[in-house]
Amino acid sequence: MLPDATTLRLEACAVDDTTAQIILRVRSTQTSAPCPLCATPARRIHSDYGRTLADLPWAQYRVHLQLRVRKWFCGNRRCRRRIFTERLPTIAAPWARRTLRLAQRLTALGRALGGNAGVQLGHAWDVVMSRNTLLRLLRRQPAPLFPTPRVLGVDDFALRKRHTYGTVLIDLERHQPVALLPDREGDTFAQWLQAHPGVEVITRDRAKAYADGARHGAPQAIQVADRFHLLQNVAEALTQLFNRHSDAFQVVNEAISRTPHLRPDGTGVVPVPPSAPPRHAQVQAAHSRSRRLARHEQIWALRRQGWTGQAIARQLRIGKTTVFRYLRSPTFAERTSKRRGHSMLNP
Ligand SMILES: [Zn+2]
Fold this sequence. Notes:
- By secondary structure, the protein is α/β, with parallel strands linked by helices.
- The two termini are about 60 Å apart.
- Helix 4 (about 185-195) runs parallel beside helix 5 (about 210-215).
- A hairpin with a 3-residue loop joins strand 8 (about 150-160) and strand 9 (about 165-170).
- Strands 1, 2, 5, 6 and 7 form a 5-stranded mixed beta sheet that branches. Strands 10-9-8-11-12 form a 5-stranded mixed beta sheet. It has a two-stranded antiparallel ribbon with strand order 3-4.
- The chain has 10 helices and 12 strands.
- It binds zinc ion.
- The site of zinc ion has 8 residues, from loops.
């Protein structure tokens, strides 16, 4: 049950039930140790000292190793290092306060759950640590290696919407993010491409920054407008178009609803399938639209009879600004989209 039974020998074991702890006194059994500088095996011991390492818990008991570690004289006369502490690479990192296997377990916990949730589950497993300890262990992990993508997707993402944006790079063949860049500047993207040669296809939105970055960083790569942004652009364009011609659509719609959909002989217009029941939000939106439409008609009816804006507001018991907003346009204005970024929290 020791981390490495070939280099450690158990000398004593003490169980403390009041603190739910097990203390294991262990000693390194290495008969020589390689110098960390010149790798010459040393055979003369200088001294030893105690080191305490937290290890994996046993049932509800926390386990600590009290480890005697030795210092050795380097036997190589030309080596600059005279005395060194033996390394125990299978047990713990040189300055660590926990064993390698405990650190690995905690790292896996932190990777899956992050700081706070990881600490909570750790406590349930009798592994006591702070959130910062867990995050420090995670940050010490080397970034995973990845091959340079052949087909690279680039897009921006918001760290804080409308304020700070970064760039995410995705390997589109492996479907994995490969890098996050701190901004969405063309130069930053170009530098990344220069440091990772071999990208053959770059799919991007049609903003200038990424086009420039791709041209400078990977001039041989083919640039492709990605499907997501093309669909998004076409959807926006069509929404604007349909809104602008909403009157015409209304007329067409009414004409269709008066037309029998299917003639007895089976030719003619294919019947429209019954639409799915509208969602709550859509019902709400439809209600508020009909309210606004009714108000628009009321206001303009009075206007055509010569009422002033002030008088209309008093008569209908609504705000003057609302009345004047409606009076700006004799045709009812559809809402094109939500007001973005507006929140009751802004004030
Ligand atoms: Zn040496």
